[in-house]
Amino acid sequence: MTAAAEMSKKKNGRESDNEDGFYFKGVKHLCGTGITEVPHKYILPVSDRPDVINEEDSYSTGELNLKLPIIDFAELHGPNRSRVLESLNSACENHGFFQLVNHGISSDVVCDMMDVGRRFFELPFEELEKFMSINMRSPVRYGTSFNQTKDGVFCWRDFLKLVCHPLPDVLPHWPSSPLDFRNKGVTYANESKMVFLKLVEAILESLEMTTTEKKTRETEEILKEFEDGSHLMVLNCYPPCPQPELTFGMPPHSDYGFVTLVLQDEVAGLQIMSRNRWHTVQPVPNSFVVNVGDHLEIFSNGRYKSVLHRVLANSSKSRISIASLHSLPFESTVRPWPKLIDEKNPRQYMDTNFSDFQNYLELCDAKKKNFLESRKLT
Fold it and tell me: Could you give the C-alpha distances from 292 to 38, 135, 244, 346, in angstroms and in order?
């Protein structure tokens, strides 16, 4: 190689590094530069774009107005509990998603959380930059894409990820701007955790592990473990995209935890895979979209399904969502529950834990359900 060629190579390498550093600043920062086209870093191969049918997986752009099963949280505590448990069992087995209504969190708390989340993403870049990190184990992390250290193509999303347990330990690390962020965030985190604990009790019962009359000691121990369980809150911002047909807000994936509770604003974008087609979930005010996570599929020995979902970009409106991911404590081992294993239903998954998942993300390009597939026993 000539000296001139070597110098050119070094120069191009520096330019590439600078370009990657620019994209690491996030989509909000990128949009602030006044772009009118999607940069190449966000452009998917033609076969992976949301407006193209993938013959191998039978993906399509989806259909609007998908009606998810509706679980009335209030009725879980009344005379119709057994009927609601049957509906919950069916939703987790056949859909992996459901809409949770009458969850008991006031509309004021919900609106306040959405509002303070939106105001956080509107802060000057210098404020957001304080929380930027590529350390996936950080208790507070502002980032972009899905996994910006591994993604060959970035997705059209910025996020703020907050560890929510134990709150006294992590709260000093949370953003202090906007001024009411911590106060509004703590209120919402505490109330969403209470909803999860009541919901997971119903999920255990729907798996026929217990009855309404009497909980087994094993079930009580599991519920106690969930009280001290992991809780992550992820605030997602999807700015308007000049060419949404070329990229994703988030690519197809499943959630690694036990259960995820998602708040959406009024802008549609979430799609789930059902019967080999993509379907758009229409936002329902003051409700949660709830989905089965990888840990629940493992725990149920495959009975409840962790389903692929993705997020579309759009050209006209910014979209905000808040996902609360709940599971067992970070250090706990997740394994199929022995009560759900017998000769007819042999064990389908190996043991796993949160560290396994983090190691996987740091080493792999986590797309679709690869992590869950890696836990399956052949």
Answer: 33, 26, 28, 21
